[in-house]
Write a structure and sequence with these properties.
about 400 residues; alpha/beta; Rossmann fold; eight-stranded mixed sheet
Length: about 400
């Protein structure tokens, strides 16, 4: 079995074709079953029998994990320490191949940092699919087939129980989240993915459910509000870790202007506002109306901070920069999985900022955007990675980009 690749599989070759194999590890000999064969140059497969096992292979702690079963986890069969090494290898490979940084010391020295809490029971927010009989579960990998579950060992027990120990007739999916007080919010979605209703169950036994309200979160030494199942870092320690990394790279000084793009509930902008001081300015830009409302509430005590609702695209960003009346000092960029894209990256590279702090949940998207900044004369100056998604192939990165080659 060849090296690990982006997406949670290993790369093998057979009769001139590439085979992307899940449930394997580098160096193993395995028997595979082809699961998808639609392209002339490659196919996908599961390792269904291990002939020579890696020293890093372990028994899966989740009974629903494995070939042909739940697709929610990629690496239940891998020791946590090896998961960290594999994730670092993927980030380095993507930045080397897509951004030409294979020999850059910032990249070669990367390690994936462990977050506290262990590899199980870390997930505070999840979406479970529901079948036509109202039974909840998770999909098989790259499939619409549903695996019915009684538990999800990576999800906090109150969240898993709130969804998996009941039926959901008429629903297409259920979102669930646990906030810092232990309150569990469930949101029903119809088969088009539209939310239809939300309820909250407070901790304390057989309390009645109540209509959903904003949920409480904690990070950076203060409390935050978000919509009940709205976006927030899934791992309970991730928000603190990312705030610390972003603050360290941004190094905001009094009087500086900070532009927080894809701001969500205002986490990074709110964390950086005190450093900017009364003479500084923090502008948080977010498209989602509910997230903007939460950000307004979270930033209410910070007069230097403001929330602008709008999409982050090249045209709108150019207009926003013009409205600022001067270049931002620092830009915090936390885009969705697809990344910021070349057009937005090029606008930011020409913004006059002294630094861009980029928070990325996909190393390939990060590498493509780093390449776009590099083409505009910027360089990667710092890089950290966090295991915010144990048992999966996902990894969270924070990168520092600065002008100058």
């Amino acid at each position: 079995m060849g090296p690990v690749a982006h997406g949670g599989h290993c790369v093998a070759r057979h009769e001139g074709r590439v085979v992307f194999v899940r449930h394997a590890l580098p160096g193993e000999r395995v028997v595979v079953e082809v699961t998808e064969d639609r392209q002339p140059g490659f196919c996908r497969a599961d390792a269904v029998e291990v002939l020579e096992a890696s020293a890093h292979r372990v028994e899966r702690p989740c009974p629903y994990s494995g070939p042909g079963r739940c697709g929610g986890c990629d690496w239940q069969h891998v020791t946590p320490a090896e998961q960290h090494r594999l994730k670092a290898a993927v980030v380095r490979e993507q930045l080397g191949r897509l951004a030409g940084l294979a020999e850059d010391p910032v990249v070669t020295g990367l390690v994936v940092e462990e977050l506290p809490g262990g590899p199980l029971r870390w997930r505070t927010r999840a979406r479970f699919a529901v079948d036509r009989d109202g039974m909840p579960g998770l999909r098989r990998h790259r499939s619409h087939d549903l695996v019915l579950l009684e538990d999800c060992p990576i999800t906090l027990e109150p969240a898993a129980a709130a969804v998996l120990q009941r039926r959901w007739p008429g629903a297409g999916a259920v979102d669930v989240a646990v906030d810092s007080t232990g309150a569990v919010t469930t949101t029903r979605l119809d088969r088009r993915g539209t939310p239809t209703s939300s309820r909250v169950l407070r901790p304390g036994g057989d309390l009645p459910e109540e209509p959903a309200a904003r949920a409480a979160r904690s990070a950076g030494g203060r409390d935050w509000e978000v919509e009940g199942t709205g976006f927030w870092q899934v791992h309970p320690a991730a928000a603190d870790a990312l705030v610390s990394a972003v603050s360290g790279y941004a190094d905001v000084a009094p009087g500086e202007t900070v532009l927080d793009l894809y701001a969500g509930a205002g986490l990074f902008g709110g964390a950086l506002a005190p450093a900017a001081g009364a003479e500084g300015r923090v502008v948080c830009v977010e498209a989602d109306a509910d997230a903007c409302a939460a950000a307004e509430a979270n930033l209410a005590g910070l007069p230097q901070a403001e929330v602008w609702q709008g999409e982050v695209d090249a045209e709108g960003l150019a207009d926003l920069l013009a409205e600022l009346g001067g270049p931002p000092s620092v830009v915090v960029l936390d885009p969705p999985r697809a990344g910021a894209g070349r057009a937005v990256s090029e606008v930011l590279a020409g913004s006059g900022a002294r630094a861009v702090v980029y928070v990325a949940c996909d190393p390939a998207a990060l590498a493509r955007d780093v390449a776009a900044f590099a083409a505009a004369g910027w360089r990667l100056s710092g890089l950290r990675a966090f295991d915010a998604f144990p048992m999966t192939a996902h990894v969270e990165c924070v990168a520092l980009l600065v002008p100058g080659s």
